[in-house]
Design goal:
Layout lengths: L10 H11 L5 H12 L2 H6 L2 H6 L4 H6 L3 H14 L4 E5 L7 H4 L7 E6 L8 E5 L6 H16 L3 E4 L5 H11 L4 E4 L13 H9 L3 E4 L11 H12 L2 E4 L7 H11 L3 E4 L10 H8 L3 E2 L3 H5 L21 H8 L4 H8 L3 H13 L3 E4 L2 E4 L3
Parallel strand pairs: 3-4, 3-7, 4-5, 5-6, 7-8, 8-9
Antiparallel strand pairs: 1-2, 2-6, 10-11
């Protein structure tokens, strides 16, 4: 049994929770209400139907409690959890992502393939159009790489277009990335991203889903998936999206959850920019560089970055600053690094107290 299925609950209670999870029409809020009312899933399953009715549970839920289909689904989930790299996180047990647990409708059960520890690392969601333009894909790739190099886990929905570009870019620089599925983990969607999903698991990243393992793609599941993408993250960056895009749902949920919302502007003639422009009019942070994101997150206590930082004595930017003050652009020219990477590193040095910015010029701080 995975260590993530915390030892605080018994095997019988675990099986009962999986049975509850498989009931039709239950949902996160009703799941939590049953556990709180009866003190556990096993007691809830054995309670009379009248008690369920008094809690406002649909009759279909109470009627399905003892069905063979629900029992078999719980058995398949138990067998899946026993496999390597497979985990089950529960909203009231240790190991559940702290930010996600803040949601009123947090998933009671979260299936994880890969490394569940990275769900507690600082995450930034990067989302956008499934039919993204080439410039949009290039922008997503550049931002994902820079943010991953700055130590953030890149979270997205494993969809075609912007999502896939964000996941791949994080892996390309040795970073970590989380794919939140709108299907069960045994039914990867889209099929074209099966190899990407496998690469994510193999390279220390993770796939997560609140849905039963064999759940297929259903339209109503993707908005539910989006609340997990934003709920896991410190903020959501929308790269390219139409006004009808699901990415705007993710951004709206992020704002409701108290997360930062960022949007990259584009041409007024490009339909894929109109969703981002709408977000900016609604108060999203207009983003032109990674620095615009990093400067809003300086107060967060960050875990060790996914990419191992250089020793302070060997940090190229710090060595240049010790010789003379520089602007960000001058540091990029002197170091040969892309400007987004320079800005990310400067923000890290500033957070660590090793560099300071005064009137647009960077100075090394003496220890």
């Amino acid at each position: 049994m995975s260590q993530s299925t915390a030892a605080a609950i018994s095997p019988a209670e675990l099986e009962a929770r999986l049975r509850l999870h498989g009931l039709p029409g239950l949902g996160p809020m009703r799941f939590q209400r049953l556990l709180q009312a009866f003190g556990g899933a096993a007691r809830a399953l054995s309670a009379p139907a009248a008690a369920w009715q008094s809690l406002g549970m649909p009759a279909v839920c109470a009627d399905a409690r003892r069905s063979a289909e629900v029992r078999e689904g719980a058995g398949r989930a138990l067998a899946w959890i026993d496999g390597p790299g497979r985990h089950l996180l529960m909203w009231d047990q240790p190991g559940y992502p702290a930010l996600l647990a803040q949601l009123q409708d947090a998933p009671p059960l979260l299936f994880v393939a890969g490394d569940p520890a990275i769900l507690e690392w600082p995450q930034l969601a990067l989302v956008g159009s499934r039919r993204a333009s080439k410039p949009g894909l290039d922008t997503a790739t550049a931002f994902s790489r820079s943010l991953a190099e700055a130590g953030f886990v890149i979270t997205s929905g494993l969809a075609l277009g912007i999502d896939g570009a964000a996941h791949r870019a994080a892996l390309d620089v040795g970073g970590r990335t989380v794919g939140v599925l709108g299907t069960g983990l045994e039914n990867c969607y889209p099929q074209r991203h099966r190899d990407l999903a496998r690469a994510m698991i193999d390279q220390g990243s993770a796939l997560v889903s609140e849905f039963s393992l064999d759940t297929g793609p259903r339209p109503e599941h993707f908005p539910r998936r989006n609340r997990i993408i934003s709920g896991l993250s410190l903020g959501v960056l929308v790269v390219e999206a139409s006004v009808a895009s699901g990415s705007l749902i993710t951004a709206r949920l992020a704002a409701e959850q108290g997360r930062e919302v960022y949007a990259i502007p584009g041409s007024i003639h490009h339909p894929g920019a109109r969703g981002c422009h709408q977000l900016i009019r609604d108060g999203a942070v207009l983003v032109e560089s990674v620095h615009h994101i990093l400067e809003t997150l300086q107060g967060w206590q960050r875990l060790p970055p996914a990419v191992e930082p250089m020793a302070s004595s060997a940090h190229p930017l710090l060595a240049l600053l010790q010789a003379a003050p520089h602007s960000s652009e001058a540091l990029a020219l002197a170091s040969g690094w892309p400007l987004p990477r320079v800005l990310s590193s400067l923000t890290e040095l500033e957070i660590d107290g090793r560099a300071a910015n005064e009137n647009g010029r960077w100075f090394a701080r003496l220890s």
